[in-house]
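User: For a benchmark we're assembling, each entry needs the component sequences followed by a predicted structure for the full assembly. Here are entry 17's components. Please fill in the structure.
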Amino acid sequence: MSALEVFAALLLLLGGFFFLSGTVGLLRFPDTLSRLHAVTKADNLGLGLILLGVAVHGANLVLAAKLLLIWMLALLAASFSAHLVARSHLRDEASRDG
Amino acid sequence: MGELVGWVFDGLLALSLVLLAARVVASARLFESIVLFIVFGLLMAIAWARLAAPHLALAEAAIGAGITGALLLSTFREIVTDQPPSAEAPKVLVYRLRVLMALLAGGVFAVLGWALLSIEVPAGPAAGEQARALVARTGVDDAVTAVLLDFRAYDTLLEMGVLLLAVLGARAAVAAQPPASGDDLWIGGEGDTPMVGALVGLLSPLIIIVAGYLLWVGAYGPGGAFQAGAVLAALGVLLRLTGRLVPLPRAGAFQRGVLVMGLAVFSLAGLLTMATGRAFLQYPEGLAYPMILVIEVALTLSIALPLVLLFSGSAGIAAGRSQHSP
Amino acid sequence: MSQPALFVLIAAAVFAIGVYGLLSRPQLVRRILALNLMGNGVFLLLVAFARRNPETIDPVPHAMVLTGIVIAVSATAFALAIVRHLYRQTGEVSLGEDRPR
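Assistant: Structure for entry 17:
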């Protein structure tokens, strides 16, 4: 294995670790907001690292640009859905308390 | 090493698919079942990729998981009554019979699969050459597109008929008794958030570009009318959810035209080929590619609109902000 | 065991689970989910069949499954529309003979 491949493999493993910790957070954290926090933060970083690993392994600019676009779209979707979930959670809480 | 990783991956995928399917059936809460079914669809997309079927991976992610999931969730919103499991457990005999039936069905299925896999493959480079020459004659380089729009164009034509029938049937059910509240799908609630406008503004042009790309690339790679239509339909679902599209009790002439366009253009192409003394949908040499392209554009629109209407649960849709908006 | 054989086994398992769900859960949306699982089993079988020769991939089953996916979503949408209609008319989400008495 070349140095580049080792580097790519390290990035993939690190990305997998972040995904794993995000999922553990999702399963173990007590309430909606902290679960959301765990999933969005850790998974987005994990996905970024994995895509970076794939880009390093592919060593191809067009491929890297496509992967970057995918990451951006995933970030957009994640932030939007996290926002909506949090909002609906807060509204539910407000209607319960009020 | 690579092969071993592949086997481990396939094994994990197999385990996940089977466990997810079991949870979809066994889960006590309907909402959980629906969400797990969507996850099942996404893993199916990975399975298609593993089986070297990128066309199907694209279609599954957009249609199987995306549109079907949206349809199931919008139905769940309306039917919130989660039927409690019936008070008395089924009789032991009934339960055993069900398990027996399921095992029998699975067994027959496995034997059938084994029989299929042991069919002799036309081997050697000659068969491959022959197939490639056939595909090249259609004017498109992608074998799956060639099958869909040329060799087995009948299938695709009738499929458009089925989609149209589904829309008409659903419309009859809706027309008989429209939903109580007019715009039940809008997620904005009592006020838009700035995020919604930003998301719609960013995604809409991008989705249209992606749909156009998928349609175009279908001639020589994974893509085509189905995937492009599904992606466009996803845009429709997004706009319907954010109140940019509102339901109409009746479809205008334009929307009716788009609904039947795929079927009409396809049939017309078939009749034209017959008029020139060929078989139904046997394209003349040299004209195959332009004809397929025209048909595919019509199909894309006639796949996207029915899916949006089915999600919307209305006979028509119109642009406009929902009446809830500030 | 080859890769297609593994996927045929998954397909059979998913199909059997779908049959069990169809028989055991009277709630109509669940029946629709179970039918979709069975359909996915059949699709997996067809695509595994297309890959029986690792060198060339048969495009015909791929095209058939692509058609099948669109048909499945049409049928699902139609079935869901009928379920909604039934619910609006009667407030029930299962068929008469399946309701607990």
